[in-house]
């Protein structure tokens, strides 16, 4: 590959543990690789470094931890400090991601790297897909979505007689103990992935609805909600921090945690497939027994991330069969770019796909709504006289969010 020497500069000897370098991340990657579409397989094979056999399985998802040992600026990308206090309160608010320096923004940004590049091979594309392989795992780990005690890192505990910390057992010790309990090696990611797939595979579609695949905050909140589970995690920690957490705590939390590992694998596959469809086109949709010839061209405008799709279709008549459900334009894209006002200055930002309840390509609309309610309740206007606020909606992208995607207003 073009980027092998660039990506491989950092030795795996310096790996930082997160979701378990020997097991949990490889399990999510193995599950994801299993459920890649043809386009998804093409994307992964063309971009993942040859060191990792151009696959999401194996150690691919651990690359980001290795990278951050020499690139400390990427460390905040692995978590989001939800400032509420579990187990009493949970939930994400936009101020939890200060300066877009958290895992939610990182997933958005690395996705946009691929879309801006139209998935063309490059160092940036390879890094982006390998970052995503890691972050889509981390965001499903409850202690990566929690500010309390530095995500549990500052809480020294005992697990099966060994000293460790509360965060670490969820990354490594519990998944490894689970593998041993089920009769597998602590490094046998393939067998553990297949075992989990047998249990949770029936729920795959529920785990990968448009809600979870379109909105990064939904995945973070899904994991964070477990931090407030009255029968696990922080509630059990508070009952007896001096206990050996390899006993009753392990029994109470193991299935909840391993379900999160499985969710991460299924969501990673869906995410990669959606990116690949956007880059390569989804191809013909079988609406009849005789194939429908469909040509789709997807253009991604680098600055605004507006996405335009043109389709030419020739249909032959035959007995109808069910139309495939396709997610053509994921990741919160809207019918028009937030960098332009809506038609007639009254059109809201509308999701490109009607199955999505909202679109937020900037991960910032909640902040804008608080300052200029008109932008989300009435329409996306850039006239201050219309919005009744201090900024028009387009200018608020810069003034409220500090985001330069739409350029810097001349009045700034």
UniProtKB/TrEMBL annotation:
What GO molecular functions are on record for this protein?
endonuclease activity; hydrolase activity, acting on ester bonds; metal ion binding; nucleic acid binding
Gene3D superfamilies the record matches: P1 Nuclease (1.10.575.10)
- UniProt keywords, alphabetically: Disulfide bond, Endonuclease, Glycoprotein, Hydrolase, Metal-binding, Nuclease, Signal
Is Nuclease among the key words of this record?
Answer: yes
SUPFAM superfamilies recorded for this chain? Phospholipase C/P1 nuclease
Does the UniProt entry include the keyword Signal?
A: yes
**CDD domains referenced in this protein's UniProt entry, alphabetically:** S1-P1_nuclease
What Pfam families does the record point to?
Answer: S1-P1_nuclease
GO annotation terms (biological process) = DNA catabolic process
Q: Which InterPro entries match?
A: PLipase_C/P1_nuclease_dom_sf (IPR008947), S1/P1nuclease (IPR003154)
Secretion signal, residue range per the UniProt entry: 1-18
Q: Give the family this protein belongs to, as stated in its UniProt record.
A: Belongs to the nuclease type I family.
**Name of protein:** Phospholipase C/P1 nuclease
Q: What is the organism lineage in this UniProt record?
A: Eukaryota, Fungi, Fungi incertae sedis, Chytridiomycota, Chytridiomycota incertae sedis
């Amino acid at each position: 590959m073009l980027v092998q020497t660039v990506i491989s500069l950092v030795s795996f000897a310096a790996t930082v543990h997160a979701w378990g370098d020997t097991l949990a991340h490889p399990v999510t990657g193995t599950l994801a690789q299993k459920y890649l579409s043809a386009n998804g397989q093409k994307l992964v094979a063309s971009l993942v470094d040859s060191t990792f056999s151009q696959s999401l399985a194996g150690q691919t998802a651990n690359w980001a931890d290795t990278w951050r040992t020499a690139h400390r600026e990427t460390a905040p990308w692995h978590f989001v400090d939800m400032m509420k206090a579990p187990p009493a309160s949970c939930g994400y608010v936009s101020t939890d991601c200060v300066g877009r320096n958290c895992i939610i923004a990182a997933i958005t940004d690395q996705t946009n790297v691929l879309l801006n590049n139209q998935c063309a091979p490059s160092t940036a594309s390879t890094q982006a897909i390998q970052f995503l392989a890691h972050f889509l795992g981390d965001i499903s780990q409850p202690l990566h979505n929690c500010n309390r005690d530095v995500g549990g890192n500052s809480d020294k505990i005992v697990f099966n007689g060994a000293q460790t910390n509360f965060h670490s057992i969820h990354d490594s010790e519990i998944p490894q103990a689970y593998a041993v309990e089920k009769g597998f090696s602590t490094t046998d990611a393939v067998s553990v992935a297949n075992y989990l797939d047998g249990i949770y595979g029936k729920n795959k579609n529920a785990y990968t609805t448009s809600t979870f695949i379109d909105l990064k905050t939904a995945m973070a909140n899904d994991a964070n909600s477990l931090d407030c589970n009255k029968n696990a995690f922080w509630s059990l920690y508070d009952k007896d921090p001096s206990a050996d957490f390899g006993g009753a705590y392990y029994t109470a939390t193991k299935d909840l945690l391993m379900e999160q590992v499985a969710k991460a694998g299924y969501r990673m596959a869906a995410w990669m497939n959606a990116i690949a469809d956007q880059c390569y086109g989804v191809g013909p949709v079988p609406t009849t027994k005789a194939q429908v010839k469909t040509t789709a061209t997807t253009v991604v405008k680098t600055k605004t991330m507006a996405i335009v799709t043109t389709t030419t279709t020739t249909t032959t008549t035959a007995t109808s069969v069910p139309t495939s459900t396709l997610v053509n334009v994921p990741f919160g894209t809207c019918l028009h770019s937030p960098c332009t006002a809506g038609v007639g200055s009254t059109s809201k930002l509308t999701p490109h796909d009607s199955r999505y309840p909202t679109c937020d390509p900037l991960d910032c609309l909640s902040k804008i709504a608080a300052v200029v309610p008109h932008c989300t309740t009435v329409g996306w206007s850039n006239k201050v006289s219309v919005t009744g606020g201090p900024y028009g909606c387009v200018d608020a992208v810069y003034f409220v969010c500090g985001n330069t995607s739409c350029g810097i207003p001349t009045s700034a």
